[in-house]
Specification:
763 residues; alpha+beta; Helix Hairpins; 6 domains; 5-stranded antiparallel beta sheet
Length: 763
């Protein structure tokens, strides 16, 4: 029998409250606990740039944001109050007396458990005289407890009940305490309890879920507004060929820059006074006569003005327009990536269309102009002034470098200069400032690549045929730029060097040559030819698997051949035994020869096993492993020197294969986020018709200008394999029917009756 009772005293509910409260308190504390500041690497601190722009950026990143002090104080206050409440509830719960106490007659009589009956009776008399109600100072309740304890130890039935049920009176009703205070189910409080339930589950919960859902459907996985993505898709599809000015206009129309979509955007009355001078300066680039929506809206015009002022590195009012510029520039790299993804979606969609949509595929130059815009914004410089990425560069310094005498137009050419010539260009700089230039230049990335092709799903993985799915395995290697130093001088890292400058970009002349038609076809390259032994082994395995059932018909012939071989072996063995019996020396020689033959056969079998293992590893190389798929995508690579970008930026790279002759993509651009030293990625594309093709592997940076890597390669595609329209399951069934017919004929012949005989008899 069970009895349920609400917690009148509040002890049970306190235990429940403590357990439930700690489930929220620990994660809440972990979330609000301030993280420790990471110590900077001394080597990194030594090599970091100390130009004015970098110092201002570091100061802005380290200084607390507006209201950060109040937020930290509020965070500590909430944590302290939460833990004080927990400690108070825990102390109160520990002081609650237990309702259920185990009945122990020995404890009541104040004797040991091993006491004899005589000692029990003696102690009972002493205590009964002491607590008898008729005596002065007696206690009736204690007297009843003593009598009940004496009976539990002396009376056989009472002792049996105590030993079996824990009570001398026999089994009692089991009591369960509900961890809710009684006032919750009190009739006088029912209205308030019902109102609390309605407020929590009908008002607060639906509003919270609806707010979260409405916000989640407005953004995609990259925290970009869906309205912005639709805007990019519409205008990229509308204008498949765009220059940089048009790309800038579409970027400025992003709804992240509009106050109605982004609460961080601020509209100030001072804009009416501060923007007109900038508008007049960049009037030829902004395009005020464009009446397309939303590019003619004030927020889009303001965004374009600030972007052009950012590229020109104009000094803006620090508390107004400069804050707006930082907000726009901070969001631009992700928006540029979204524009590239939108172009990829349109290209993928148009390839499956058979109507006029195929003419709306974004051109290769359009997507590359979009990609080019990202490093321009990150470095706050234009395409033709890429040397401004280095610190302490001014307009005068740039003019000296680009003069006819120097003819230095990119960072690679600057690194090839003699150290004396470089120092002469920066003769107005102090040695620490000149060292900043060298440190940043030496940290610029240099990309090297290698590419291999395989058809993973085919038996011959190294032969590319028309229509097959080609998997291009690209290995990227990132290294710092090597600077040309005079003998005796040292690099910033302390390594002495001579003229050791790496070429990082394929020259434009080579790219132009790649656009010319191919005059003649060349032989198949080495990477397209496989080992004959592996091909033979793989073909043999495939044939043995597929032709298992087909060999049934030839089984009898094989058995006869095996029997003949066994007979010949027996004869040879008999002759060998005779020879051994005649001459023991010949026996030893024959044994040695046999051992050599066995070793040779074992070696051949091991080689076959190794070739099979290698083939299996090659087949498994193209299959993405579950562990790699489940791993999170890291976005940590190398920190970018970008003093005019408000945040710490990491190096990211677009990787794709393109046909620059016909200005089209072979593979969609893939973003690589974690290229630290070496990275291997896979690109897949369908093989074109038979012929020799000249493609370009493109690796483009989203953070630096003049650091793109282009590599030309040729792809030989063979004739498509003929598809044999055969149905193995049908062939197997036909063979089984033939076998059944043959067995039926043989059975009938054994019985002395054939089908022809039956026909004759019928006749």
């Amino acid at each position: 029998m069970a009895k349920f009772e609400y917690d009148e005293s509040g002890g049970t509910s306190l235990y429940f409250l403590v357990s439930f409260y700690v489930l929220f308190l620990i994660p809440f504390t972990y979330y609000l606990w301030p993280s420790k500041e990471k110590k900077e690497d001394p080597e990194k601190l030594r090599k970091q740039c100390h130009c004015d722009a970098c110092e201002d950026k570091r100061e802005s990143l380290t200084e607390p944001a507006a209201g950060a002090t109040f937020k930290n104080a509020l965070r500590w206050f909430i944590l302290v109050v939460a833990w004080i409440i927990f400690i108070a509830i825990a102390i109160k719960a520990s002081q609650v007396e237990r309702d259920h106490i185990e009945y122990d007659p020995f404890e009541i009589l104040q004797i040991d458990r091993g006491a004899s009956d005589r000692e029990i009776k003696r102690q009972y008399r002493i205590l009964s005289l002491k607590y008898h109600p008729d005596k002065e100072g007696g206690d009736p309740d204690m007297f009843m407890r003593i009598a009940k304890a004496h009976a539990a130890l002396t009376d056989e039935e009472s002792r049996k009940n105590w030993e079996e049920h824990g009570n001398p009176d026999g089994p009692q009703a089991t009591q369960f305490g509900i961890a809710l205070p009684a006032w919750i189910v009190d009739q006088n409080n029912s209205v308030w309890v019902l109102a609390a339930y309605i407020l929590a589950f009908i008002v607060i919960l639906p509003i919270g879920v609806g707010t979260w859902w409405y916000r989640s459907i407005r953004y995609n996985a990259e925290e970009i507004l869906m309205d912005t993505t639709q805007l990019f898709l519409h205008y990229i599809y509308k204008t498949p060929g765009m220059n940089l000015k048009r790309v800038m206009m579409i970027l400025s129309g992003a709804f992240e820059f509009r106050k109605s979509h982004n609460s961080q955007v601020v509209q100030r009355p001072s804009d009416n006074e501060e923007l007109p001078p900038l508008l007049k300066e960049f009037s030829s680039d902004i395009g005020l006569k464009n009446k397309e929506q939303p590019f003619c809206q004030p927020y889009s015009v303001k965004a374009r003005i600030l972007l052009y002022a950012h590229l020109a590195r104009n000094d803006l009012p620090p508390k107004t327009l400069d804050q707006d510029r930082l907000l726009i520039v901070q969001k631009c790299p992700v928006l540029v990536q979204e524009m590239v993804n939108s172009a990829n979606q349109i290209t993928a969609w148009a390839k499956y269309q058979r109507g006029p949509g195929i003419n709306k595929i974004p051109q290769l130059t359009t997507v590359e102009n979009i990609m080019k815009l990202s490093p321009m914004i990150v470095q706050a410089t234009k395409e033709k002034t890429s040397l401004m990425q280095l610190p302490h560069f001014t307009e005068d310094t740039l003019r000296i470098c680009q003069s006819k005498k120097r003819n230095v137009k990119n960072i690679q050419q600057f690194a090839r200069l003699k150290d004396s010539d470089r120092r002469h260009i920066f003769r107005n700089l102090y040695d620490p400032q000149y060292q900043d230039v060298l440190n940043v230049c030496a940290a610029m990335p240099v990309i090297d690549s290698s590419i291999t092709f395989k058809v993973i799903d085919d038996e011959d993985t190294n032969t590319i045929t028309a229509g097959s799915l080609v998997t291009a395995t690209v290995t990227l290697k990132r290294s710092p730029l090597e600077i040309n130093y005079d003998e005796g001088n040292t690099l910033p890292n302390g390594i002495s060097g001579k003229e050791t400058v790496k070429e990082t970009v394929v020259q434009e002349e080579e790219v132009k040559q790649s656009e010319s038609p191919v005059a003649s076809k060349k032989k198949q390259p080495d990477w397209a030819t496989g080992k004959k032994k592996k091909k033979a082994v793989l073909a043999k395995q495939q044939k043995s698997k597929k032709g298992g059932k087909k060999n049934k018909a030839a089984g009898n012939e094989n058995k006869e051949k095996e029997e003949e071989k066994e007979k010949e072996d027996e004869k040879d063995e008999g002759n060998r035994v005779e020879e051994v019996s005649k001459n023991s020396e010949s026996e030893a020689e024959s044994d040695i020869e046999d051992d050599r033959k066995d070793e040779a056969s074992d070696g051949n079998s091991d080689a076959d096993v190794e070739s099979d293992d290698e083939q299996w590893e090659e087949l498994q190389a193209g299959i993405p492993r579950k562990e790699k798929v489940l791993e999170g995508r890291s976005k940590e690579s190398h920190e970018v020197h970008c003093p005019y970008h408000p945040d710490v930026k990491q190096e990211w790279w677009w990787v794709y294969i393109a046909d620059r002759k016909y200005l089209k993509f072979i593979t969609a651009p893939t973003m690589v986020y974690d290229l630290t030293d070496e990275k291997e990625i896979q690109l897949q594309f369908p093989a074109p018709p038979k012929g020799t093709y000249q493609y370009t592997l493109c690796v483009r940076s989203d953070s630096y200008l003049d650091c793109d890597h282009l590599k030309l390669f040729k792809l030989d595609v063979g004739e498509a394999k003929k598809v044999v329209e055969s149905h193995p399951q049908w062939e197997d069934s036909e063979e089984e029917e033939r076998e059944e017919d043959d067995s039926a004929v043989s059975d009938s012949s054994d019985g002395g009756i054939t089908e022809s005989d039956d026909d004759d008899d019928d006749e």
